[in-house]
Amino acid sequence: MTDKRPLRSAQWFGTTDKNGFMYRSWMKNQGIPDHEFDGKPIIGICNTWSELTPCNAHFRKIAEHVKKGVLEAGGFPVEFPVFSSGESNLRPTAMLTRNLASMDVEESIRGNPVDAVVLLTGCDKTTPALLMGAASCDVPAIVVTGGPMLNGKHNGRDIGAGTIVWQMHEAYKGGLISLDEFLSAEAGMSRSAGTCNTMGTASTMACMAEALGTSLPHNAAIPAVDSRRYVLAHLSGMRIVEMVWEDLRLSKVLTKQAFENAIRVNAAIGGSTNAVIHLKAIAGRIGVELELDDWTRIGRGMPTLVDLQPSGRFLMEEFYYAGGLPAVIRRLGEHDLLPNPEALTVNGKSLWENCALAPIYGTDEVIRTLDNPLRADGGICVLRGNLAPAGAVLKPSAATPELMIHRGRAVVFEDFDDYKARIADPDLDVDETCVLVMKNCGPKGYPGMAEVGNMGLPPKVLAKGITDMVRISDARMSGTAYGTVVLHVAPEAAAGGPLAVVRNGDMIELDCNAGRLHLDIDDEELARRLADWQPPQGLLWDGGYRRLYVDHVLQADQGCDFDFLVGCRGAEVPRHSH
Ligand code: FES
Ligand code: MG
C-alpha cells in the first residue's frame, strides 16, 4: 500500500470544530462509532436498485457484499440511491432519463463525504449514466454490474430476453403462431434476477465497462444469481479502498486507449448500437475526443467472435461458462487485434495482464476463433451522405448481408404514431424491396430517442415469409433487436436534418461497403425542400425536465448528452452548508 494521502472525506469528518461536530453527529444516528470517522476511506455505493427496474431489483444484496469487502479492507461503506433508469417500464423511453441520472450521480458524489465510489449498474442506461456522472467528478470508481438473468426457457428450448419478443411478435403478426402461444413465453423469458441475457445493451455496456478497465475481470458475464457474482462484489469492495490510497482516479483508466479497446471489443462481441452513443457520452465527460469515425477506423471489418443472440445463437450464461470477456480479449490480443494492451484497469494491472492467460472453455462455439467467426465484418458500420450529413449507424452482424447494398423506394412515416397507424394497412403501397423510413424519433423528436428503429415489417410482407427489409430512422434500436436497420440518423428530422424532407417514392441508396446513405434527388431539390421545412408542432414541452431535455440534448453523433454536462468538473469539495 502506498503512503496514506489526505482524504477528501476528512474535510467533513476530520475537524473538531462546529462543522466536524455537525457532520459526524447526524451520521451517528445510524449507530456509527467514533473510530469509523478516524481517517478511513469513505466509499460511496451508488445504487440503482429499484423495484421498477426489475433488472436491478436484486442490488441491495449485491451492495451488502460490496460492503463486506470495503469493511474488510478498512474502508467505511455508505450506500446511497440514485435515479434508476429502467428500460422495461419507463415511458416514453429510459433514454430520456439517462442524463438526469448522470446529474444525480455527479452531484451526489461531489456534494457528499465520499473518497471513491462503487457503481452498481445493470439495466441498459444505468451503466453509462453512472459512469458519466462519476467521470465528471473524476474520483476513483469501480463498476459492479448486477449480472445477466439465467437463460430463458420456453417450449423445450432456450429463449433470449427481448429477442424472443421481437421474433414471436413478428410470427404472430404474420399469422404463423397463435396469441396464446405468443403470450405463453412471458414467464419463461425472465425467470431469475438480472439483466437481459442476450447481447443487448445491458450486456454490451457491462462488457464495455470491463473492456474500458473500469471493472474487475469477469464482471460483465457472471450470471446475476451465481455466487461468484457476490464474490466479485466483495473483491470490488476491497479493491476500491486500495484505489483511494493509490489515487487511481477514473481519468487514469478512461483514456483514449481504453475507448479504442472498447470499440474493438464491441465488434468482437457483436455489441449493441447503443454503445456508440453511450461511449461518446462517457468520453465527453472525461475529456477524451471520440468520434464516429473512430468506430470505422478501429471497429469496422473486425470479426464478431461471440455467438450470442441477437446476432447469433447463445446467451450470457453460455458466454460466462465459455470464459466470458477475458477469453474474448485474449483471442483478440493473441492475434494483435487489441489496439492498446497496456491500458490500465481498476485492479492496477493492464488489460492484457488481466486477460493474457484467461481460460477459454468448451468447443469454440460460443467464443469462436478468428478463422471461424460468427461474422467476418462485425463492428459498427458508420454511414454518411446527403441523408445523414453527421452520420448514421448500422450493425452488420444483425443485418442481412444481401440488403447491405440496396436501392429502394421510400415508404415514409412521419413519426411513430403514423407508423403504427398505417403499417398493417393492407392497402399500404409497400413490398420487400422498399425502404421503410421513419422520422421524428430522434433525441428531440420523440423526445428521448426511443428504441423504435427496428420497425416491424408490414404484415403482408411477413406473410410472404420475408423477415427483413431496409429500415431508416433517427431512432435507436434495442440491443436485443436485429435487422438491416439504419439508426441514429443525424441531424435528426426534428432538428431539420434531411431525413425530415424524404417523401414517399424517393429512391434511397444504402451502401454499407462504401459507408454511404444517399437520397437520390438533386441538390437543388433537397435545398428547396429543406428551405420549406417547418418544425413539427407539439415538440416544445411546456416545462419540467423534459423541456430541459429538448432544449439541451445533443445529437446522436455527439452522444445525446446535454450541452452543459459535457466535460470533467472534478470533485473539489464545495463550501460548508452551515
Ligand atoms: Fe433491463 Fe434489458 S430491460 S437489461
Ligand atoms: Mg435494451
Describe this structure in words.
Pfam families: ILV_EDD_C, ILVD_EDD_N. Belongs to the IlvD/Edd family. Strand 5 and strand 6 form a beta hairpin. Helices cover 34% and strands 13% of the residues. It is an alpha/beta fold. The strands form three sheets. Strands 7-8-12-11-10-9-13-14 form an eight-stranded mixed beta sheet. A four-stranded parallel beta sheet has the order 2-1-3-4, sandwiched between helices. It has a two-stranded antiparallel ribbon with strand order 5-6. The chain has 21 helices and 14 strands. The model has no long low-confidence stretch (mean pLDDT 96). Helix 4 packs parallel to helix 5. Magnesium ion (MG) binds next to loops.
Alpha-beta content class: alpha/beta
Strand content: 5-15%
End-to-end separation in angstroms reads 36 Å
- Oligomeric grouping of the chains: single chain
Number of strands: 14
Number of helices: 21
Ions, cofactors and other ligands present here are: FE2/S2 (inorganic) cluster, magnesium ion
Low-pLDDT runs of 5+ residues are none
- The average pLDDT is 96
Main β sheet profile? 8 strands, mixed
Described by the principal axes of the CA atoms, the overall outline is globular
Binned, the helix content reads 25-40%
Integer-rounded radius of gyration: 24 Å
Spatial sequence of strands, sheet with the most strands: 7-8-12-11-10-9-13-14
